[in-house]
Amino acid sequence: MSFLELRQVSKTYGTGANEVHALREVNLAVDAGALVAVMGPSGSGKSTLLTIAGSLEDPTDGQVHIGGIDLSGMSRDDKARLRRRSVGYVFQDFNLLPGLTAVENVSLPLELDGLAARKAKAAGLAALEELGLADRADHYPDQLSGGERQRVAIARAVVGDRRLLMADEPSGALDSENGEAVMRLVLAACRRGVAAVVVTHDAQLASWADRVVFIRDGRIVDQTTAAVGPDALLARSPNQ
Amino acid sequence: MTTVTLERPQIELGRGDGGMPARQAVVRWAWRLFRREWRQQLLVLLLIVVAVAATFVGATVAVNTRLPANEGFGKAQDLAILQGASAGGKGPVASTPSRLRAEIAAIQHRFGTVDVIENETISIPGSIDTYNIRAQDPNGAFGQPMLSLLSGHYPVGPDQVALTSGLASTLGLHLGDVWHQGGQSREVVGIVQNPQSLLDEFALVAPGQVTQPSSVTVLFDAHGFNVAKLGANFESIASVAAAQSNAINPTTILLSLVTIGMLLIALVAVGGFTVLAQRRLRSIGMLGAVGATDKNIKLVVRANGVIVGVVGALIGVVLGFVIWLAYRPHLETSSHHLFGVFALPWGVIGASVLLAVIATYFAASRPAKAMTRVPIVAALAGRPAPPRQVHRSAIPGLVILVIGFFLLGVAGGGQNGGGAGFLVIGLVLVVVAVILLSPLALSLLARLSHRGPIAGRLAVRDLARYRARSGSALSAISIGVLIAVVICIVAAARYGNVLDYAGPNLANNQLIVYTPNSFNGPGPLPTAEQMAAAARSAESIGAGLGTHDVVELQLASAQLIHAARGRNFSGQLYVATPQLLRAFGISQSSIDPSADVLSMRPGFSSISDMQLVYGNFGNKGGPPPGNGPPTQFPCPKGSCLANPVIQEVAALPSGTSAPNTLVTEHAIRTLGLESSVSTQGWLIQADQPLTASQISGARLTASQAGMTIETKNDQPDSSVIINWATVFGFVLALGILAMTIGLIRSETASDLRILTATGASSYTRRTLTGVTAGALGLLGAVVGTIAGYVATIGFLRTNSLNGLSSLSSVPVKNLLVILIGIPLVAFVGGWLLAGREPPAIAHQPLE
């Protein structure tokens, strides 16, 4: 059973002459434990796909199901609750909250969900420890390196048994070594049963995925079922 | 690569919104952000600190300056004053000692415990002043608050006495000295005081040591019984408190002022919090992305507002308390009673703190709500919400302005302060009208700017487009200017009144020595020897100040009356003696021979309906009882001269107590007032401002001769009040501009980038920001000035003391500073600070 499912999802911005079709009748299913990479040129609709799949935006048409629940009938607060319990985000520029320490950033979704601060902190520390950041738990984001910040962001995205991880260019602001480390962590989360969707321009990083989806002009134009490495991916470019 | 698929149960969504842990997490984050970014909220913080500290000090001073409600009662609820035989039988109950004892016993029998304080009035040798020998039990049931020991100990036997420090000084006694009085010798064993009245000078002896009391105060508690029924010499603390109570008291006025002040702060804070919320847009977007609900997001912004309010209020309270601690000794001296360090009006202080928190909470509510309208994706990208079109009707604002104008008229026509309530409500309504009409003023300005250059046109148009933001900034600037303008206008009107002259009493190098009161009373006229002695004392004081410029001040039985509605003449009408004129460099030849009155008050000669009353009506002792000076015009001949010839002489001194208006010797002769001329005192002018020690020495010399002195008081000059009000309005307006201009321009950052891309230089960017700031400053100054005049006209049009004619005194310079200075400085500031392209919010770094 797919944990994330997009059915005939379309997204249109603006009206009349200003109308822009960001997504057109997109169908996508991601099973629990699967890592799906989304690739495509700028403006192709990758990020829109990610935000709609993660309930940050509503589609103009179509349906989004997460864990079997149709998002179209949900209120804003219900979607917020869904995100803090089931959906984690990792962004290119980390998006950690200034003023909160690493462990407080990680435990924030749990606290927002009503878990007592002490228990949330313990869970946050455990998540950081798994990523080798226990000793940086009480540091503020501006005291961490780029790689450390992204690891904290990943810890926040998976803490509390989240089942869906959405990552938008997670290695975009990192060097190749840190970028690979981040992908390794994402893959490790998938091995624990997390469904992950990763938007990336980097073919080499996409090669870590179980499946690569190509998107252009808002449509999925191709997808691989089993990536065999970055060179092969380049060879299978849709332009060819 | 293999795909691991785990069978997991479907997601079950709970119904909670995170409850207390979520709120705690959000508030904790808001607190951390406040600690990181408090500098960006400094203006709001400072305004709250100043408002709360000023309320703290003002209310505490107002409450403690009044005599304590239990003055004379101590801890008792009731008292009876019994007159002793030595009082001469003048009191309502003049009694022999035995009868006094019987009456005290009767009170004790009826009401239980009593505390008896016996006083015997004694004259100070060689003086008309008196003091009391007081027998009081320091451990009495009720009288303890009226007695405290400064040094030594309380007297315990018939040969011991404790003195107040003033009496000890007068009698030249110290601790351990022996005081001989009435044939009895007592050792001075202590220095005492009455904390409820520092003017109370007495010699404390042990209970029972006053054998011939002039009066006996019996303190007791009647337990709610109305003791007034027992006689005029019985009084209860409740009846005293009721007589002193007044709904329009300093506390009420202060609370009204602080409410208006907090409204202004709230308006300023709306802009500040909006700027801050925009700066945190990406963080707030991230908060939404990790699952924060709209309530959580609103709470972040509101919590920040509350934190600013609480922190500002607490700092204000601490600052106010520190100022109070420093000022308390001076206040105790000037109000002649002691009060505790914590004798604070907790209710008013609490209310001001609460108002500060409420103001910042509501100020933060608007940006909080706006934040929830920004889609999460837009917030994560740092794109602020698109501007909302605001279409508001002018009608509600105009209606409220008219109602406010009407109520201010009712307040202006009120008698004896009865209109104070209407005054406060009227002012609040004018403020509300300004808030409602400000966005419309922006639209009007935009319409007027069609033909300007592109940068200016764009700037003004953006102000109108984004008036959801700029409107609140304009309101805050306008209200700040309104307050400043009202103060300027009212001060100019009051100080510009040539009849009821206001201002400092004397220059700081001047001093007036007044003849003893007995010289001018109903008794016999002073002899030539007494006058000569007084003159010698004045000369001696002058010599002590290093000057021989001692001018005799003479009064005649003549007064000026303004026989028309409005204020009347105030001040002394001294005689224009040749010596006095010479002292100010005025030659006799420069005086119109037909002039009856000389005055330095500008415009005084053009006042109509003036009359110079003399004889009985002009008597220094006042007009005959029940027969006031004539009010009809022209007044009857024989006791009054209608339309006296008034000549303005700028060289005369300007102090209200100085001889600024004189009756000429010509008038004295014509009206036959020569015999009424008498000496009132001497004006002494030193070369340098008088020092405190010089004033102290002069006062001592004068008191030894039974005379009094007057030196420059603390009354501010009109220019001081008007200038400070102008500075207040100026700084506040620029502060608000500094906070809001960045927000308004950042909203149009994309326009700026497009302009730059199309070849606009830094000149265009500077012009854009400069015109935005200047236009906002100009509109604020104009709207505030108009509203200030509307409010003042509304009040003065019905005021019997200060009619609309008082508005003829226009503080032109200060109004020009406001109307031209604010927009000019705002423009220049905006120009100078906008050289670089402002960083777009979307490009602000996030960790």
Describe the protein.
- The complex is a heterodimer of chains A (240) and B (847).
- By secondary structure, chain A is α/β, with parallel strands linked by helices.
- Chain A contains eight helices and ten strands.
- In chain A, the strands form two sheets. A six-stranded mixed sheet of chain A has the order 6-7-8-3-9-10, sandwiched between helices. In chain A, strands 2-1-4-5 form a four-stranded antiparallel sheet, with helices on one face.
- Chain A is globular and about 50 Å long.
- Residues 235-240 of chain A have low confidence and may be disordered.
- Chain B is built from 23 helices and 22 strands.
- In chain B, strands 1, 2, 3, 4, 5, 6, 7, 8, 9, 10 and 11 form an eleven-stranded mixed sheet that branches. Chain B has a four-stranded antiparallel sheet with strand order 13-21-12-22. A four-stranded mixed sheet of chain B has the order 15-20-16-19.
- In chain B, strand 7 (178-181) and strand 8 (184-193) form a beta hairpin.
- In chain B, helix 1 (19-37) packs across helix 8.
- Classes of the chains: A alpha/beta (240), B alpha+beta (847).
- At the A-B interface, helix 2, strand 6 and helix 3 of A face helix 1, helix 7, helix 8 and helix 10 of B.
